[in-house]
Amino acid sequence: MTENDHKVLRALIAVAWADGQMEDTESTVIDGLLAGFDASDDEEATLREYARTERSLRDVDVSGLSDEDKELLLGNAALLTHADGDQSTAERLVLGELSTLLGFDRSRSFEIIESVRGGALDER
Which pLDDT value is given to residue 119? Predict the structure, then answer.
């Protein structure tokens, strides 16, 4: 995995914690992403350990992400917020916070989020 892949996954872990808990369905999605990003056993162990503690977007560094990485992150974050079948207010708010953090304007954020509605996670 690249450093940007790590950044994307750490940010997605923070999104999973948006409502103050990591649901089993969200954990399963994170596991799938680890496989999709072709994480080594050590990388998986490190990121799973990271995911055991409540995280927020203040805990992540998205500097240096390419536009493609940013779109991948926001799209997967939008899907992750629906992993348990219900997008909470806290999850909607974290998507807005993430969009701002990534430098997307409201229109572009909406496009990315809408483009993944009903879709599958884009795995690498």
Answer: 56
Sequence ranges of the domains in the chain: 3-115
Nearby residues of 28 by Cβ (< 8 Å), 6 or more positions away: 83
Are the C-beta atoms of 14 and 76 separated by less than 8 Å? no
> Residues 2-39: pLDDT tens digits?
999 999 999 999 999 998 988 888 889 899 999 989 89
Distance CA 8, CA 14 (A): 10
User: pTM, whole model, 2 decimals?
Assistant: 0.89
Q: Which fold has domain 3-115?
A: TerB-like (1.10.3680)
Cα 51 from Cα 14, distance rounded (Å): 8
